[in-house]
């Protein structure tokens, strides 16, 4: 990670981050629209030699303003639930631009999504059988293949290894083909999603090989969908996926396949984190600094109820002390206010933190707000998007009323 000049100066598009917390309160999620545009362009450039389509995996961030931005720059959607499908359509997407990639959901959810016009990614043999019985050859589908390849940042975010619950094992190809034949199912695409935080091109190529080998058995394909999972930069010096190299290698392999297949297919990706992680910041305020004999603790007005990635799978979020950037470096554990182990960062060197200082967690654009909760009866933060040099509130802060709305006497 290279801190941008803006991050070093603690501003986004000329807007001072600390002032945002004064205007909109703390804690606060802030997104930089320009970063999202840049990431989309980078991926387009990397795959400019093939017919590539991006299907933003919107579980990373479902704010309507983010989805509308994606739509305005030609990015389509991948959803994992009926709720996400509905939000996508509210953002202006046509159902046909949305892929529904469920994981063992009730079949009525698939039925509703297909009837709305979304394209489903079938993820089990029983669902494939049901799909054939229900729709025969009247609706197209993709099949999610599990290639049995282990890759990703850590085991909790791997999705394609043999032990993973996702998709239909490539070893069951004969059974897949049998069901497809029995109902004349229109399989227009094969899909796989390997996992998250995958840095090297090698695993992507390995699964692409497996998927393309499998694809030879399906005559009606229009799409090969290689999922998401590109690694982004989390800390200074971090290595990330070399998109240009990956783009060249996969495009070459894909073009060779299309030639052999006899037709030009579309190549789909479903990036989540890659498109939005670096656009986002969670701004929090220091409530207490505890100089304990064992350790220095920085307590902030947030916790795993707002950003659970560090606690859930050990994710690293770089932290800036934007109120005292020139302070002498000290080592801290940065912790939240939730009554539960609630550590954002251990042994983290930061410019001296004082009560009231505003800290910024970087890489908070993906799996931040969407994974937040009301644990400890806490309200979730507001969200702000910065675009064209202006800060706009795109979700108001929750109130106590919001929390009580569903409770009955
Ligand atoms: C979560 C998910 C993605 C996105 O993963 P990232 O690591 O955020 O890129 C893509 N495809 C599917 C099916 C997913 O479930």
Automatic annotation (TrEMBL):
<comment type="pathway">
    <text>Amino-acid biosynthesis; L-lysine biosynthesis via DAP pathway; L-lysine from DL-2,6-diaminopimelate: step 1/1.</text>
</comment>
<dbReference type="InterPro" id="IPR022643">
    <property type="entry name" value="De-COase2_C"/>
</dbReference>
<feature type="binding site">
    <location>
        <position position="229"/>
    </location>
    <ligand>
        <name>pyridoxal 5'-phosphate</name>
    </ligand>
</feature>
<feature type="binding site">
    <location>
        <position position="367"/>
    </location>
    <ligand>
        <name>substrate</name>
    </ligand>
</feature>
<comment type="similarity">
    <text>Belongs to the Orn/Lys/Arg decarboxylase class-II family. LysA subfamily.</text>
</comment>
<keyword id="KW-0456">Lyase</keyword>
<dbReference type="GO" id="GO:0008836">
    <property type="term" value="F:diaminopimelate decarboxylase activity"/>
</dbReference>
<comment type="subunit">
    <text>Homodimer.</text>
</comment>
<dbReference type="Pfam" id="PF00278">
    <property type="entry name" value="Orn_DAP_Arg_deC"/>
</dbReference>
<dbReference type="InterPro" id="IPR002986">
    <property type="entry name" value="DAP_deCOOHase_LysA"/>
</dbReference>
<comment type="function">
    <text>Specifically catalyzes the decarboxylation of meso-diaminopimelate (meso-DAP) to L-lysine.</text>
</comment>
<keyword id="KW-0210">Decarboxylase</keyword>
<keyword id="KW-0028">Amino-acid biosynthesis</keyword>
<feature type="binding site">
    <location>
        <position position="367"/>
    </location>
    <ligand>
        <name>pyridoxal 5'-phosphate</name>
    </ligand>
</feature>
<keyword id="KW-0457">Lysine biosynthesis</keyword>
<dbReference type="InterPro" id="IPR022644">
    <property type="entry name" value="De-COase2_N"/>
</dbReference>
<dbReference type="InterPro" id="IPR022653">
    <property type="entry name" value="De-COase2_pyr-phos_BS"/>
</dbReference>
<feature type="binding site">
    <location>
        <position position="313"/>
    </location>
    <ligand>
        <name>substrate</name>
    </ligand>
</feature>
<dbReference type="Pfam" id="PF02784">
    <property type="entry name" value="Orn_Arg_deC_N"/>
</dbReference>
<dbReference type="InterPro" id="IPR000183">
    <property type="entry name" value="Orn/DAP/Arg_de-COase"/>
</dbReference>
<dbReference type="InterPro" id="IPR029066">
    <property type="entry name" value="PLP-binding_barrel"/>
</dbReference>
<feature type="binding site">
    <location>
        <position position="309"/>
    </location>
    <ligand>
        <name>substrate</name>
    </ligand>
</feature>
<protein>
    <recommendedName>
        <fullName>Diaminopimelate decarboxylase</fullName>
        <ecNumber>4.1.1.20</ecNumber>
    </recommendedName>
</protein>
<keyword id="KW-0663">Pyridoxal phosphate</keyword>
<feature type="modified residue" description="N6-(pyridoxal phosphate)lysine">
    <location>
        <position position="59"/>
    </location>
</feature>
<dbReference type="InterPro" id="IPR009006">
    <property type="entry name" value="Ala_racemase/Decarboxylase_C"/>
</dbReference>
<feature type="binding site">
    <location>
        <position position="340"/>
    </location>
    <ligand>
        <name>substrate</name>
    </ligand>
</feature>
<feature type="domain" description="Orn/DAP/Arg decarboxylase 2 N-terminal">
    <location>
        <begin position="35"/>
        <end position="277"/>
    </location>
</feature>
<feature type="domain" description="Orn/DAP/Arg decarboxylase 2 C-terminal">
    <location>
        <begin position="29"/>
        <end position="365"/>
    </location>
</feature>
């Amino acid at each position: 990670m290279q801190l941008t000049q803006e991050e070093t100066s603690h501003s986004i598009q000329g807007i001072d981050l600390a002032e945002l917390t004064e205007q909109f309160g703390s804690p606060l999620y802030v997104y930089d629209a320009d970063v999202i545009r840049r990431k989309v362009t980078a991926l387009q450039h990397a795959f400019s030699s093939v017919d590539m389509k991006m299907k933003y995996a919107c579980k990373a961030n479902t704010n309507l303003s983010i989805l509308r931005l994606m739509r305005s720059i030609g990015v389509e959607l991948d959803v994992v639930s009926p709720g996400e499908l509905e939000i996508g359509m509210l953002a202006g997407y046509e159902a046909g631009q949305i892929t529904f990639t469920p994981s063992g959901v009730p079949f009525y959810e698939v039925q509703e999504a297909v009837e709305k016009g979304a394209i489903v990614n079938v993820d089990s043999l029983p669902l494939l059988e049901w799909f054939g019985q229900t729709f025969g050859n009247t609706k197209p589908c993709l099949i999610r293949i599990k290639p049995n390849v282990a890759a990703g940042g850590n085991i909790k975010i791997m999705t394609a290894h043999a032990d993973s619950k996702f998709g239909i094992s490539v070893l069951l190809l004969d059974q897949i083909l049998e069901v497809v034949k029995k109902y004349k199912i229109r399989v227009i695409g094969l899909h796989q999603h390997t996992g998250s935080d995958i840095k090297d091109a090698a695993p992507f190529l390995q699964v692409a090989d497996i998927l393309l080998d499998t694809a030879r058995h399906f005559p009606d394909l229009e799409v090969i969908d290689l999922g998401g999972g590109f690694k982004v930069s989390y800390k200074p010096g971090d290595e990330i996926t070399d998109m240009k190299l990956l783009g060249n290698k996969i495009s070459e392999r894909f073009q060779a396949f299309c030639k052999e297949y006899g037709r030009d297919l579309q190549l789909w990706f479903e990036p989540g984190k890659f498109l939005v992680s670096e656009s986002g910041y969670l701004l929090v305020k220091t409530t207490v600094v505890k100089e304990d004999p064992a350790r220095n603790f920085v307590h902030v007005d947030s916790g795993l109820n707002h950003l659970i990635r560090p606690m859930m799978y050990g994710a690293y979020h770089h932290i800036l002390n934007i109120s005292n950037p020139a302070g002498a470096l000290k080592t801290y554990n940065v912790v939240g206010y939730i009554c539960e182990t609630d550590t954002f960062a251990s042994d983290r060197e930061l410019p001296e933190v004082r009560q009231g200082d505003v800290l910024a967690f970087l890489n908070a654009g993906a799996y931040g707000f969407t994974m937040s909760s009301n644990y400890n009866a806490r309200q979730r933060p507001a969200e702000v998007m910065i675009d064209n040099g202006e800060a706009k509130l795109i979700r108001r802060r929750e109130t106590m009323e919001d929390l009580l709305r569903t409770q009955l006497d």
